[in-house]
Design a protein that fits this description.
mainly alpha; single chain
Length: 295
């Protein structure tokens, strides 16, 4: 794919005309829209959207940070949809997600044996790894002359393994907090506790498949489908639920969790698209859009 489909000016990046974009366009678009939603939340509520809590007291000018980061994230989200700015936008969103992950790393250091601490970190790592893989795919599509330390085949394999580890953490949280998870199961579905355990097992299985490289594309597609359904069946209906569920007590929490859920789903779809040339078996040595190894 090198040398084909080079960017021309600011033509929309999602103008579907290249093989990679036919399969990764949905994840790409959902990633940009979800990140834009979090940016708008930062601008409306004046805080770091995914974290919800106010900025640390020691940080000077919290308002400037909140609105500045929100404006930067919104601009980067829009930039994902234009060929001339998509690569830089993926880097910017990745940096935002890195700050989010850093904020979630402290609880892990303070309480390393608490599953919830790892869940918070894993939730932040999902978009970071999604941005990483999206950047690598976009860079290769732009006809970049050579792979770099973060876009080479080994780097992408590492990103997928880390994403798989995050999925395992999601599954562990389902088991550790099964009663809480069961409360989120729609009332019209049977056996909420059983579904909490079942979906936890599916998260763990999908993560294991990505970590060890067995059926990785199927594993990523399963994870993407589960998270997407969680957003559609749980968080979107929460806006209309009467009375308001205790796990969605405020409008800010509902909006934040909705956008985070779809951002995680988009990241999983991006992972699946990067594996589109695998035959549902072992992970390929060269991800889609790269030059095959010499034989």
């Amino acid at each position: 794919m090198r040398g084909r489909g080079r960017a021309h000016g600011c033509r929309p990046q999602l103008e579907i005309g290249r093989p990679n974009m036919r399969s990764s366009g949905f994840g790409h678009a959902l990633f940009g829209l979800s990140a834009a939603g979090l940016a708008l939340l930062s601008l409306v509520y004046g805080n770091f959207a995914p974290v919800v809590e106010p900025f640390p007291a020691w940080l000077p000018w919290p308002g400037i940070w909140a609105y500045g980061l929100g404006a930067i994230l919104l601009a980067a989200s829009a930039g994902l949809f234009f060929a001339g700015t998509a690569v830089a936008s993926a880097i910017t969103i990745g940096a935002y997600a890195l700050a989010w992950a850093a904020a979630r790393a402290r609880p892990v250091m303070l309480q390393p044996l608490v599953v919830g601490s790892w869940y918070g970190l894993a939730e932040a790592l999902g978009p970071l790894l999604g941005a990483w893989i999206l950047y690598a795919v976009l860079r290769r599509q732009s006809g970049a002359p050579a792979a770099t330390m973060v876009t080479g085949d080994r780097a992408l394999r590492l990103a997928r393994v880390l994403f798989g580890a995050a999925c395992i953490a999601y599954g562990a949280a389902h088991f550790a907090y099964a009663a809480y998870t069961a409360k989120m199961v729609p009332a019209w579905l049977p056996e909420p506790m059983g579904l909490a355990y079942l979906t936890g097992a599916f998260h763990a299985a999908a993560g294991l498949g990505l970590v060890i490289g067995v059926l990785p594309r199927l594993a990523a597609a399963l994870e993407a489908s589960m998270i997407s359904l969680f957003g559609v069946l749980v968080w979107l209906p929460s806006f209309f639920a009467k009375p308001v569920p205790e796990w969605a007590a405020s409008a800010q929490i509902r909006w934040s969790e909705t956008f985070v859920t779809f951002l995680l789903a988009a990241s999983a779809w991006i992972v699946a698209a990067s594996l589109q040339r695998s035959r549902l078996g072992l992970a390929p040595t060269a991800p889609d859009g790269s030059t095959p190894p010499a034989r």
